[in-house]
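@channel sequence for tomorrow's demo:
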Amino acid sequence: MAGPTAVGKTSFSIELARVFNTEVISADSRQFYKEMSIGTAKPTPAEMKGITHHFIDFLSVKEQYNAYHFEKDVLAFLEKWFKDNDIIIMTGGSGLYVDAVCHGLDDIPDTPPEVRERLNRELKEKGLQTLAARLKAADPEYYHAVDVQNPTRVVRGLEIFETTGKPFSSFRTGTKARRDFNTVKIGLHRDREELNARIEARMDQMIAAGLFEEAAELLPFKDYRALNTVGYKEIFDYLEGKYDKDEAVRLLKRNSRRYAKRQMTWFRKDTDYAWFHPDDFESAVLHIREKTRLQE
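structure tokens (generated this afternoon):
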């Protein structure tokens, strides 16, 4: 199950797990990290309602982890899981990680480390917006599909282009790897105004819950890949005196809205998704039953 930030995936997936007597795999690449809780909207034990969640809180922000690692780890988990179980719910807003498990990843060429090192130096010297503009000119398809507020994504797109002379998007062939399980894809959506209101309300809740304080504790690790993400970068810049707190809050909300839009752009390209409003729970359950032939 997929969808943009703040759409309601957590509660929906937990209720699905209760209906189908199963567990949940998190495909939210930010919830992997133990130190990041408030800013990732990580479900609390109370919110989980006794439903076991996998791939949450199993890494430190100091560890290197990516979609390739996630694909390998989840497939190994599923091989064991399906020996005794028929269904499991995977949920998240990280499209690349969802696709990695469902279809595998395209064969992206290796790049010389010196290219990445040079681009990272340019990132520090010239800023993210300069590199993002270059990426937009070189590969508009990739630019509009990913979170261009994430320096890692921007640098990755540029290093592929500069090494191969071809846009990163040209290597996304869409070829699906063979899987030993069937996948039923559902997505959650809301009208833009409704979703934006939820994003802003949730950001206010996060701030009240201590988001700024959590980010302050993580400031020494701000250059780690895991923390190059919406919800923390804006506060790091505030803590370093680049703007005041009101501006930090404005940017948190704006960038979260933009991130949600990019998430939907990614998922909408996959026509296998059946889309439901979060209030239409019974229709989603019926759809899953029809596709899996699992009855009550």
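heads up for whoever presents: The first strand starts at residue 24 and ends at 26.
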